[in-house]
Amino acid sequence: MCLVASFMTLLDISIVNVALPSIQAGLRASDSALQWVLSGYALTFGLMLVPAGRLGDARSRRAVFMTGVTLFTLTSAACGAAQHEWWLVVARLLQGLAGGLMTPQVSGFIQELFRGAERGRAFGMLGAVVGLSTAVGPLLGGVLIQLFGAAEGWRWVFYVNLPIGLAALPVARRLLPSRCVKPGVAARPGGRGFDPLGLFLLGLAVLLILTPFLQERLWPGWQKWLLGPLGLVVLLVFFAWERHAAGRIEPLVHMDLFLDRSYALGVLISLLYFSGFTAVFFVYTLYLQNGLHYSALLAGLATTPFALGSALAAAVGGRLVTRFGRAMVAWGLVVVATGLLTTMLAVHLVPGPHAGWVAAPPLLLAGLGSGLVITPNQTLTLSEVPVVRAGSAGGVLQTCQRIGSAAGIAAVGAGYFAHLAASGGDWAASFQVAMVICASFVFAALAVALYDLFGPGSPRYRRS
To answer: What are phi and psi of 428, to 5 degrees?
Structure first.
């Protein structure tokens, strides 16, 4: 049931990308509104992750999860019924909050209900769902728009969530435990109050850091980038407050989580990797639809190899992570970088309308590598986290993934559009530049994985 809900929230990210032209045609939406349809969801989703994880730790994880599913279903209906661009924008903001409310509960339940190799397999299934939702989203969006037309097809992109949400609620009520059921697991925290100041500081920090990235193309001028350093200052204040508050109330995030080497380095790997691989879909879709004039359906089909490879490898990686550990993550990063650079070479050799076909095999390779990165890294990162902090720890990890995604799309998009303008509209060459930037982020994540394997503090370093 948790996997079904995860599928629904992730589907709503990938499926909307191909629906933007239909939304613009149906609502006569401005470019600004379309940007907010995408970035507003990502922003509110990211703002909710840590507090929602903490709420699930402190109260009933099932109750928080079911509330999120209910609100997500209702806001999906509101999105589909939108009669004006700003109606849709507000509904998407609320939909992001609902998605952020239920997402940390999924990793929390996995931490709570599974141990050892079983936990790795559970995270592997979650990774497979991530890959499948990424694959199905663009394809399903293209099919719906093809069936219902450019003017109204976008509404069904949101209505598709309604039967999923309505079916999920009774099953979740019956199958999910309201409290921890594993013997020997400590009671939940929560007796020393919540942390409203920590909630405010973290929310403000995430808002300040994410906003300039999400609005990079709509807010001209360099002044918007001042929000990033200001957000980092607020984040430092948040860290100081959490340390100070730890002895008096239950903090939003326990800072001693970052004393665990596996958790700290795993969060950093996730931040860097999501900066690279998420942007691939953004620029690839632009290249196919705007540069090569692919339809939404064909563009969705062209992205399928990466997503299917990721889904397949994630299921395998979840089963093998306890055996190979961080080495699997490192090899997965090598495979992803190889796939991205080979994709760049394929587009360079065949830059015309057949580029989508020749890029399919290297994208499949990159997807296979991605499945060996995301799921194993998440499993290893959360492996030493106490169960009573599973939700908040997972929320921090997922928030870093959202920040990485936003930063990566902004950085890769800036390089892509700058080269496009300088080259007079050479879409293929601009896509190649974007792939180099994406691969650079992946190599940075690989450097962190190698440090974890061989650097000071690692078992191999102590033996040498």
So the answer is: -65, -45
Q: Digits of tens for pLDDT over the chain (464 positions)?
A: 677 777 787 777 778 877 877 888 888 887 777 778 877 887 788 888 888 888 887 778 888 999 999 999 999 999 999 999 899 999 999 999 999 898 888 888 887 787 777 777 777 777 777 767 766 777 788 788 888 887 788 899 899 889 988 988 888 888 887 765 444 444 444 445 567 888 888 888 888 887 887 676 667 777 888 888 998 999 899 888 888 877 677 777 777 888 888 899 999 999 999 988 888 887 888 888 888 888 767 877 888 898 888 888 888 888 888 888 889 999 999 999 999 999 999 999 988 888 889 999 999 999 999 989 988 898 888 888 887 777 778 888 888 888 888 788 778 888 888 898 898 888 999 999 999 999 999 999 999 999 999 888 777 666 65
Nearest to 290 by CA among 12, 20, 11: 20
Contacts of 157 (CB under 8 A, 6+ apart): 15, 16, 19, 22, 80, 141, 144, 145
Q: What number of other Cβ atoms are within 10 A of residue 352's Cβ?
A: 9
In the numeric block, which tokens belong to residue 232? Answer: 């980092």
Domains belonging to the chain, first-starting first, are 2-175+196-463 (1.20.1250.20)
pTM over cut 0.70: yes
Strands (E), 51-156: none
Which two tokens mark 377?
A: 């890294």
Q: How far is CA 355 from CA 141, 146, 302, 370, in A?
A: 22, 23, 9, 22
Q: Convert 127-142 into a string of H (helix), E (strand) and C (coil).
A: HHHHHHHHHHHHHHHH
Amino acid identity for residue 88 in this structure = L
CB-side exposure of 283: number of CA atoms within 13 Å? 35
CB atoms within 10 A of CB 408: 25
Residue 250 is classified by DSSP as -
> Which residue is associated with the tokens 């959202």?
402
Measure the CA–CA gap between 212 and 232, rounded to whole angstroms.
13
Q: Is the dihedral of CA 41, 104, 66, 308 positive or negative?
A: positive
Give the tokens for residue 352: 């015309």
